[in-house]
Amino acid sequence: MCAAYAAVKAGLDVRIVAKGQGATHWHAGTIDVLGYLPREDAPILTAFDAMNRLVQDGGEHPYAILGVDAVRAALDDFIVLSDEIRLPYRGSGEEGRNLRLPSPVGAARPLFLAPEAQLPGRLDSGQPMLVVGFEGFVGFYPKLMADNLCAQGHAARAAFLPLSLITTRRDFNNVWLAEIIEDDANLNRLAEALALLVRPGERIGLPAFLGFRHHEKVMDRLRQATGAPIFEIPILPPSVPGIRFHDRLARYLTHLGVRIEIGMEVIGFHAEGDQIRWVETATSARPLKHRARHFLLATGGILGGGIDSTAAGRVWETIFDLPLTNPQQRTHWFRPHFWDPAGQPVFQGGVRVDQSLQPVDASGNRIYANLWAAGGILAGTDPIQERSLEGIAVSTGMAAARKIMSKE
Amino acid sequence: MHTTSLLSVGNTLDECIKCNICTSYCPVSEVTDKFHGPKYSGPQAERFRELGQVRSPDHSVDYCSGCRVCNEVCPTGVRIAEINARARAQIAADRGISLRNRLLGRNEMIGKLGSYVPALANLAMHNPISRILAEKVVGIARGAPLPRWHAETLNGWLARTGDRRLKSAQKVVYFHGCAIQYYEPFVAQAAIAVLEHNGYEVIVPPQNCCGLPMLSNGEFDAGERYHRGNVARLAGFARAGYAIVSSSPSCSLTLKEEAPELLDKHDEATLILKNATWDIFEWLRELADEGKLRTDFQPLTVDGRPMTLPYHAPCQYRAHRVGKPSLDVLRLIPGLDLRESHARCCGIAGTYGYKTEKFEIALEVGQDLFEYILAQGDVPYVACDTETCRWQIEVGTGVPNRHPIEFLAAAYGLYDLDKRRLKNEP
């Protein structure tokens, strides 16, 4: 979607074809650029310094291919994009430095950019935290979080409110709760209850369902009623911060003229020589052709569906059957230890690309002249272990769009 | 290169990763506790269902409207709506099918009966007393949008105007569906006028109900009889290389995928019919892509200004997975200010919103759409492709509905949008 943004802004005609909704719906809604490196236990404090080391290593990591300046430029563009969709993202305020925000169990998450609603949770601030959960809401345990934060030397305490403050429904889902909370009566009840709980000088953390389309209204009302900074704590999926971001970006892209087709599974393609002419998606009858001058593969890794495997050990790229760097023998997929600091080889593999982000074979030859790749499908990284999923997606997506434009 | 998805309905449940994205988007479970959401009632409950078992573990699946938002957003391709449709059939087999659901499944028979004496049928169906009776005795909500019989059926019009129909070497087969035959033959007239304007002779062979209303109500045996009837009547045209187009996305969906998949029919005749069937706008878009669609459009205006037209893509397009072909084609009309609703569902979902216990849910599901349409200002019409959706939108907003093909016919100068009849018709 970031590639679509960059491309449509540059005047290209863009269509996004996707099998279903993707990683924004699972992840925390933050932009994690580089939190850890393989074989190193300590979290990364300055993402750009660590990225420089990757560049110097000269490996096939996407950041090494792009270089630090290109990643920085893409992240700057992302901040502009976040302002344009009126969901501003910001970083630590110090050049290249990671933020540290609390996870729902009270661990520190190293990440680079966060939506404004999460920023007041910064762990480098000494302000005491009031962590509020809801009795009967199984997705979040404030006491667990507060206890773990205290054990690490942070000032935090937990409190419970009854879920009946906002809903009497027995079935609930994070997104519905986010919408239910936008109702003025529910919002006022919650605001009043929080005002009674909070002590002077505290900031208040709540599970991340503080409004969907009217998120700002919810945040303003809670801040105003309590006089305290309010922050969202990302919880189990579905991720309201991620869906909120996706929803606003998708509407904005549609407004800019991007066609977004969800629910279309690519099942084939047609190439003449080194030119891909069209991809085909499954319909209720015959396949539907999507013709384009340039194709960007952004199907994600094993979890995203861009890579599939058989129990026998074969691993393949699901659309163009591009060569992968993943081990092709099941016994080589994993190291003996689950938490091996070097990571698991099967998750580190992917599509190898050249300096232009175009897929290449083992000897470095481009496979198709009009194919690019970006995001989780790329080789040389395990984005989940590194906490680099969004950073790679944003930077390679924006960069791939630029490289495509240079061919126009 | 393979051409069809290898995953069958049953197998896809193993692809579920429990991410709950489907539940986040489900428009029904968002407004009622009676449906526990696609993940619980679909892939999760499916683990406890067995073919032929006496009691289904989860009757809330009856509250699934079948809109398929879940299928669309699922990142791993689980066919949730189809899993639910089969579960409903299991419940129907287990508990039997109510008179109400049998009636709702038989719109062809009802349409036919009423068409003998349309004025009397309208009087009988559309007076407050019979609507109350229908609600209390049968369970059909009194506020639900029942159609009116047209004075002349489509077949009547075809017989009357047969000598004026275009003869051509290029031929296309038209599947009208029950609602068009008995209630809205003018939609077919607009469709036939558009096809003839583009040089195609339109064949309207004998056909019966596609069977979808029965399939949605779990009456699989009767639905299969209908489907077999259509295969017998239409597969020959498909074999001869004719496209079979329908202006009803629900009928075309049934011929293409619903019936073969739900009934597990994969014989040669079913498949050849499946692959020859098109939604009319899907087919017209293909024509446009090949540069063969005539573009001699006149602007559509209201009091001399370009028309603003809110359009809602029906859920059936989501199941067709062909994008929004009506939008693509209507965009070719110069100056038409098309406003696409991104609402998930109008709520009616075929026969769902007609049922007393689901009527309120259906209206609540449709709220986002109704609000969107009403926010577009003083618009003369709202466009949507599927019949019951159009009727529901009219009930929810008070804005008169039209099928997109009526606008295309009007832009060709062939059709009077206001009177809903062809121009130059005696």
Your description of this structure?
The complex is a heterodimer of chains A (408) and B (426). Chain A has 408 residues and is an alpha/beta fold. Chain A has two domains: 2-88 and 244-405, FAD/NAD(P)-binding domain; 119-233, Rossmann fold. Chain A has helices at residues 2-9, 47-57, 62-66, 68-84, 142-151, 174-180, 184-197, 215-226, 240-256, 345-348, 383-386, 389-405; strands at 15-18, 89-90, 99-102, 108-111, 114-115, 129-135, 156-162, 203-207, 230-233, 259-262, 266-272, 275-281, 288-291, 295-297, 307-309, 315-317, 371-373. The longest helix of chain A has 17 residues, at 68-84. The two termini of chain A are 20 Å apart. Chain B has 426 residues and is an alpha/beta fold. Chain B contains 21 helices and twelve strands.
Quickly list its features.
heterodimer; A: 408 residues; alpha/beta; FAD/NAD(P)-binding domain; Rossmann fold; four-stranded parallel β-sheet; three-stranded antiparallel β-sheet; 12 helices; 31% helix; 18% strand; B: 426 residues; Fumarate Reductase Iron-sulfur Protein, Chain B, domain 2; Glutathione S-transferase Yfyf (Class Pi), Chain A, domain 2; 4 domains; 21 helices; globular; disordered N terminus
Explain briefly what this protein structure is.
The complex is a heterodimer of chains A (408) and B (426). With 408 residues, chain A is an alpha/beta fold. Chain A contains twelve helices and 17 strands.
Mean of pLDDT of chain B: 92
What spatial form of chain A do the alpha-carbon principal axes imply? globular
Oligomer: heterodimer
Helix content of chain B: 40-55%
Low-confidence stretches of chain A: none
* Mean pLDDT rating of chain A: 95
The CATH H-level superfamily of the largest domain in chain A is FAD/NAD(P)-binding domain
Q: What is the 3D shape of chain B?
A: globular
Q: What is the SS-derived class of chain B?
A: alpha/beta
- Fraction of residues of chain A in helices? 25-40%
The tally of strands of chain B reads: 12
Tally of alpha and pi helices of chain A: 12
Distance between the termini of chain B: 53 Å
Beta-strand share of residues of chain B:
5-15%
Largest sheet of chain A: 4 strands, parallel
Number-wise, the strands of chain A total 17
Order of strands, widest sheet of chain A: 7-6-8-9
How many distinct folded domains of chain B? Answer: 4
H/E series of chain A:
HEHHHEEEEEHEHHEHEHEEEEEEEHEHH
